Design the sequence.
């Protein structure tokens, strides 16, 4: 074949399709409409034992059309962007919307304001040969295998999506932006004396330039497995728990569920009516940074066309803002925050974040360990999402990690679980590291929670 | 946006222990041929695609074409907040070369689009061309009848069912302050053409409804969840009425309002019927042969050995009529089957797709499944069951001095390489002196596969199943897991106390 799909030019303009879809909706009798369209080339390569084990490529495109008729709204999606298909889609959307009972408050579309779209962070990506990601993966796997104790390199995988997103609405809004991400998954098994442990390193970035070194990723996965060899349970205790950068993100997932404006409106969030209150330790600042171009979630407009803004959600412990889309902002009587997230054109916008970060503090991460007389450096969590809810904040998770005695790493531990309530945990953050590095849509530096309950034997 | 990744760590999400009549004995129903309704390419159009897929060699290739109509409706604060409808169409071509996979897909049903995709798939191989066998149609018989067709049911009927769920939940108690109802249905038509010469066409329906009730009283909040899901049409609601679903979600939230923090440490746990998610995690994923192939399962090399107490018999069965994890043929065209995995404690089988079977010199058990045409198949469970025993479930609790009664499960996660699994209890109670007492919140159970299976010391005569969604390798698949009431003599409870 002459041009591999991951390099072929995507020959559909998603913005032109979105504008045609909106017009078709109005022609079909809709009061208002918006359309979100995506085109992308996708590439996935998995290397195992030095060789490509899985190669996958595709060209994708699709469009989601949201129409309003009275106070009723429906979303209909298609992968066929021809004029006749869009006309049929629009008619279907209006028909379905009219079958719904109306809601109380009218929906409001984003006004047509000027937004400066972000530039593609890796314009050469489309010209990349398959050799380049393959060599990257081989280097990562070699570094993983070189870690003492690693017995099996389970997987190293490169997943790349390179495309465009576009949004148009019946108020004249017409926006288009490149959307690109590269995600790496590296997983290793270490084994000694019949005991095995697993380690993983997941990173994602908007460009090859913002990816960490292949050797760093491979070695990180290997080391996270090997450091747990010989692990044993400990007795139950209440001690400080240190979260290194690769394991702090579950806490932010929990917080983001409670910070969602739609959950607040529904009365399901424990942060309802707490704006302006001190909800966390003064060391805690959590920012959403859609304009950080090194973060894989960067975007100049959200899934409804609202311009995005870098902002603190929690500033030095104080609750500053909720995550809001247009619906939840209207109900909360605030300006829309630009937090409508489209997982794909097939789904209606959800409330979410773009690049969420716990801001760095002043401590050297090793100094945090040295300052901990007796405690746990947690290196792996499982099942932390099982009780995830915006309404109740009882956090508990199975954990593995390194036990700390007299400020030093003493021995690895397993078979334990850690628990606390989210609200108490963020109040109890008493040290924050200076080691923030953006390696995904959520990033945290090392931080310490002064006391959590650990259940062991 | 995927907020987190667990690509090797497989997990299962679901929302409730839905007790439904034991599906045993559902076999042997008169089988009905499937009506076709989508214009798929004919054999003459498919043959050149398979030839291209094997143009550089490879021992197997297939084409998977799908058209799926999906409806999703969400209601909160008694209002419809979103309605999504679409028909997803596309095709994927796969080439297997040794243990390697080449895969390409396109979001169109056009035959011309399949040729370049076949070339993408073929690029994984390197060698002389292989020749696919001549294609012949294979009849598929359905075990997933759809009486009240999902695509013929008007949207307003689906909305009124949701309103009934909402009303029933709110009627339980004024403390029930929020109810979120999610409805989802789909009708999937697919065609599979293989280089071994088969062309199969099938249709699968799916319906699910879920209610989340939030109760608040004097500053405390709790949530209750209830879900029903089957491969069926609108007749699902004959088995379980919208009122039952809404009421049960609200009652669970009310029961958990007064919950105390869960205890921590090792103790006896009585798992209620419907807690099969535990076996899905503790053993099921480790028996998927792609994990075994990669040396990433504690069950590798354990065939014929004792891996559980002799009270434990586990099987995977995709042939049960209408269950959420059921199908007629898997996504590689292999007929659905019932596979005995553990027989009275002895490991007797792994689950295979074509690729793992080829690598391990075995046969596919019909467990090659994919989320959609956008993904190549993986080895996946279907309906995974632990067989009933003969004890009275009430006796199992009565004979437990101190421990936890696990009434409803939130989901689970396993690391197949180490066997460590975790699962969450959304409704649980203390057992004190053989009696179920205070509700507890935030409890998780943590254990290691074989260790926990060996500690199952009582198995009840009842049975309950749990519809869930299993995640693996960034693909999701509908599954059911089921078990009777049973006791684990000792397991770590990760509580919040």
Sequence:
């Amino acid at each position: 074949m002459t041009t591999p799909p991951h390099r072929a030019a995507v020959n559909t303009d998603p913005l032109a399709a979105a504008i045609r879809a909106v017009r078709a909706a109005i022609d079909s009798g809709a009061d208002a409409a918006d359309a979100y369209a995506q085109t992308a080339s996708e590439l996935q390569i998995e290397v195992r034992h030095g060789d490509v084990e899985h190669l996958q490529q595709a060209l994708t495109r699709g469009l989601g059309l949201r129409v309003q008729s009275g106070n009723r709204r429906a979303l209909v999606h298609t992968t066929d962007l021809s004029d006749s298909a869009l006309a049929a889609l629009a008619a279907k959307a209006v028909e379905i919307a009219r079958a719904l009972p109306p809601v109380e408050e009218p929906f409001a579309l984003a006004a047509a304001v000027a937004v400066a779209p972000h530039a593609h962070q890796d314009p050469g990506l489309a010209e990349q040969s398959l050799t380049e990601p393959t060599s990257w993966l081989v280097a990562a796997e070699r570094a993983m295998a070189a870690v003492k104790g690693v017995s099996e390199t389970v997987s190293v995988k490169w997943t790349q999506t390179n495309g465009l997103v576009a949004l148009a609405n019946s108020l004249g809004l017409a926006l288009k932006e490149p959307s690109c991400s590269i995600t790496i998954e590296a997983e290793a098994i270490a084994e000694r004396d019949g005991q095995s442990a697993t380690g993983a390193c997941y990173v994602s970035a908007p460009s090859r330039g913002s990816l960490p070194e292949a050797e760093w990723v491979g070695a990180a996965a290997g080391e996270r497995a090997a450091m747990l060899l010989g692990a044993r349970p400990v007795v139950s205790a209440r001690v400080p728990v240190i979260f290194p950068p690769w394991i702090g993100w579950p806490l932010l997932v929990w917080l983001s569920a409670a910070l969602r404006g739609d959950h607040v409106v529904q009365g399901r969030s424990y942060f309802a009516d707490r704006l302006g209150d001190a909800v966390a330790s003064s060391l805690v600042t959590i920012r959403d940074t859609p304009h950080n171009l090194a973060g894989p979630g960067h975007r100049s407009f959200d899934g409804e066309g609202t311009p995005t803004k870098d902002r603190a959600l929690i500033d030095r412990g104080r609750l500053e803002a909720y995550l809001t889309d247009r619906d939840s902002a209207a109900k909360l009587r605030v300006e829309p925050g630009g937090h409508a997230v489209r997982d794909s054109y097939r789904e209606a916008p959800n409330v979410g974040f773009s690049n969420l970060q716990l801001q760095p503090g002043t401590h050297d991460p090793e100094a945090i360990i040295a300052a901990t007389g007796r405690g746990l450096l947690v290196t792996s969590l499982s099942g932390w999402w099982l009780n995830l809810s915006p309404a109740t904040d009882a956090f508990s998770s199975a954990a593995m990690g390194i036990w700390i005695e007299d400020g030093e790493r003493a021995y690895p531990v397993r078979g334990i679980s850690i628990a606390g309530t989210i609200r108490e945990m963020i109040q109890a953050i008493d040290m924050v590291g200076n080691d923030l590095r953006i390696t995904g849509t959520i990033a945290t530096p090392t931080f310490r929670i002064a006391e959590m309950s650990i259940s062991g034997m | 946006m995927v907020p987190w990744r667990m690509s090797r760590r497989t997990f299962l999400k679901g929302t409730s222990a839905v007790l439904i009549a034991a599906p045993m004995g559902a076999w042997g129903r008169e089988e009905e041929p499937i009506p076709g309704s989508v214009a798929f390419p004919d054999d003459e159009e498919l043959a050149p695609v398979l030839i291209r897929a094997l143009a550089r060699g490879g021992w197997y290739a297939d084409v998977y074409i799908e058209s799926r109509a999906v409806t999703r409706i969400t209601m909160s604060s008694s209002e419809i907040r979103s309605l999504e409808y679409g028909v997803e169409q596309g095709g994927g071509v796969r080439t297997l070369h040794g243990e390697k996979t080449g895969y390409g897909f396109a979001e169109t049903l056009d035959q011309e689009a399949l040729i370049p995709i076949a070339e993408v798939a073929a690029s994984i191989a390197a060698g002389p061309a292989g020749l696919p066998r001549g294609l012949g149609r294979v009849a598929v018989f359905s075990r997933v009848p759809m009486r009240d067709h999902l695509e013929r049911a008007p949207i307003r009927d689906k909305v009124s069912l949701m309103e009934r769920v909402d009303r029933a939940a709110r009627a339980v108690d004024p403390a029930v302050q929020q109810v979120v109802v999610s409805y989802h249905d789909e009708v999937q038509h697919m065609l599979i053409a293989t280089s071994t010469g088969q062309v199969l066409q099938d249709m699968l329906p799916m319906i699910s409804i879920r209610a989340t009730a939030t109760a608040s009283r004097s500053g405390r909040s709790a949530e209750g969840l209830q879900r029903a899901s089957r491969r069926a049409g609108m007749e699902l609601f004959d088995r379980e009425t919208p009122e039952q679903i809404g009421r049960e979600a609200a009652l669970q939230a009310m029961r958990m309002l007064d919950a105390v923090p869960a205890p921590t440490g090792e103790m006896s746990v009585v798992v209620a019927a419907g807690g099969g998610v535990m076996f899905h995690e503790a053993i099921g994923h480790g028996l998927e042969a792609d994990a075994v192939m990669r040396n990433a399962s504690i069950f590798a090399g354990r065939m014929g050995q004792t891996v559980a107490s002799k009270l434990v018999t586990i099987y995977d069965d995709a042939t049960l009529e209408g269950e959420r994890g059921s199908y007629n043929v898997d996504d590689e065209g292999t007929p659905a089957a019932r596979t005995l995995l553990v027989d009275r404690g002895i490991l007797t089988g792994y689950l295979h797709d074509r690729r793992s079977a080829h690598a391990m010199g075995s046969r596919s058990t019909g467990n090659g499944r994919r989320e959609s045409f956008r993904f190549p198949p993986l080895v996946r469970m279907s309906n995974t069951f632990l067989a009933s025993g003969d004890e009275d479930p009430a006796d199992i609790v009565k004979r437990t001095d101190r421990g936890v009664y696990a009434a409803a499960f939130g989901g689970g996660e396993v690391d197949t390489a180490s066997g460590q699994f975790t699962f969450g209890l959304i409704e649980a109670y203390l057992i004190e002196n053989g009696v179920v007492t205070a509700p507890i919140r935030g409890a998780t159970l943590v254990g290691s596969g074989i260790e926990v299976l060996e500690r199952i010391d009582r198995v009840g005569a009842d049975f309950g199943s749990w519809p869930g969604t299993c995640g693996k390798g960034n693909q999701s698949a509908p599954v059911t897991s089921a078990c009777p009431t049973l006791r684990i003599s000792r397991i770590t409870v990760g509580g919040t106390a």
Remarks:
- Residues 1-10 of chain A have pLDDT under 50 and may be disordered.
- The two ends of chain A are 60 Å apart (CA to CA).
- The domain at 14-221 of chain A is CATH 3.30.2290.10 (PmbA/TldD fold).
